[in-house]
């Protein structure tokens, strides 16, 4: 089969022929129908500091994908051959303390498809059966492929007290931030403000339901938030940028007693005023890692299946798998939101 492989510790990826691994006990073989490129894949493509410290080539990349179950290994009763599935990318151990106390999303021994073990940028992928999420057969493949990152957005919005009837600031209008805007709007937020540097992304933020967008190069987001909330600040911060300045602005934009839900990861450690930004203002800050297994999948798929959230506008580009380099280069230039690869097309 053809697969996109990180062959050596250097920039770039390679499309080459590899053997199909038949499923062992507890595994399934998936014929991949669509695979989406995410920020992690761009790190691997660039071979930056994070990638060099994490990957051990060779490895088939890609962790946002969907397909049809082609075969099942011994002991597998679900899913069944022919099922349409999306894949959870975190392969957990089930034996560490977080796993055994219902927090598998922060498993201490997590292995990630396409990073630590072979992933889905390929014509076929062999994965644990428990990582398969069965979809209705009429769900478009490109939407099924992005249910995994959509789960990050759902987890962020639904952590802590709900957003219904509350004011929300979304810092960072990348793919997951844009998804979070749609989730917050569908879940009853009364005001959604989105910040970013790129007009392209901010236009998508409007399309996904933001009431007000702020280009931080042109406006002060704190001033905008205060004007919109009568000086109180927003009740919920959803942070996706990983940018130090944006994180400070987001915390400062919160009303006393507000909640910060932080998914964005800074490239380097940052400094902040623990007393002034958090303690003395009674701010609750929550770190968001992946998706709650599998609570978030039920929540997210329900939003998609019911039509309350439509992710179709975010799939801006579609490519045959052999044109992967063009897709990566487009995203590097910031000219797309989600680019989806289609093996065999």
Task: Describe this structure as you would to a colleague.
This protein is about 30% helix and about 25% strand. The chain is of the alpha/beta class and about 350 residues long. It has 2 domains: about 1-145 and about 310-340, Quinone Oxidoreductase, Chain A, domain 1 (Alpha-Beta Complex), CATH 3.90.180.10; about 150-285, Rossmann fold (3-Layer(aba) Sandwich), CATH 3.40.50.720. Strands 3, 5, 6, 9, 10, 17 and 18 form a 7-stranded mixed sheet that branches. A 6-stranded parallel sheet has the order 13-12-11-14-15-16, with helices on both faces. Strands 2-1-4 form a 3-stranded antiparallel sheet, with no helix packed on it. β14, α9 (about 245-255) and β15 (about 255-260) form a beta-alpha-beta unit. The two termini are about 15 Å apart. The model has no long low-confidence stretch (mean pLDDT about 95).
Summarize the structure.
The protein has helices spanning 39-46, 49-54, 97-100, 141-145, 147-158, 175-186, 199-207, 221-228, 244-253, 274-278, 295-305, 324-332; strands spanning 2-6, 14-17, 27-36, 59-60, 64-72, 84-87, 90-91, 111-112, 124-128, 132-135, 167-171, 191-196, 212-215, 234-239, 254-262, 284-287, 315-320, 338-342. The protein is α/β, with parallel strands linked by helices and 345 residues long.
């Amino acid at each position: 089969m053809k697969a996109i492989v990180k062959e050596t510790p250097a920039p770039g990826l390679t499309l080459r022929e590899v053997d199909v691994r038949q499923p062992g006990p507890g595994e399934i073989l998936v014929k991949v129908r669509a695979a989406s490129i995410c920020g992690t894949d761009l790190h691997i493509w660039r071979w930056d500091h994070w990638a060099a410290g994490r990957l051990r080539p060779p490895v088939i990349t890609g962790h946002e994908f969907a397909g049809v179950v082609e075969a099942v290994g011994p002991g597998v009763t679900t899913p069944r051959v022919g099922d349409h599935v999306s894949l959870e990318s975190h392969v957990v151990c089930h034996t560490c303390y977080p796993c055994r106390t219902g927090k598998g999303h922060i498993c201490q021994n997590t292995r990630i498809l396409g990073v630590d073990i072979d992933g889905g940028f390929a014509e076929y992928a062999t994965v644990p059966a428990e990582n398969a999420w069965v979809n209705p057969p009429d769900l478009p493949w490109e939407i099924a492929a992005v249910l995994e990152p959509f789960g990050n957005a759902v987890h962020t919005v639904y952590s802590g007290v709900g957003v219904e009837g509350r004011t929300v600031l979304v810092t960072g209008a990348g793919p997951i931030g844009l998804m979070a805007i749609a989730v917050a709007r569908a879940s009853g937020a009364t005001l959604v403000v989105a910040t970013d540097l790129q007009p392209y992304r901010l236009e998508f933020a409007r399309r996904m339901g933001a009431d007000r967008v702020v280009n931080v190069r042109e406006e002060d987001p704190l001033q905008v938030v205060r004007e919109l909330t009568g000086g109180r600040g927003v009740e919920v911060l959803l942070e996706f940028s990983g940018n130090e300045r944006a994180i400070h602005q987001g915390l400062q934009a919160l009303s006393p007693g507000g909640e910060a839900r932080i998914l964005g990861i800074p490239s380097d450690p940052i400094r902040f005023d623990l007393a002034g930004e958090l303690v003395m203002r009674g701010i609750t800050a929550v770190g968001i890692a992946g998706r709650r297994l599998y609570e978030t999948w039920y929540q997210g798929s329900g939003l998609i299946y019911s039509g309350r959230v439509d992710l179709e506008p975010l799939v801006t580009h579609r490519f045959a798998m052999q044109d992967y380099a063009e897709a990566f280069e487009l995203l590097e230039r910031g000219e797309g939101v989600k680019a989806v690869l289609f093996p065999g097309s």
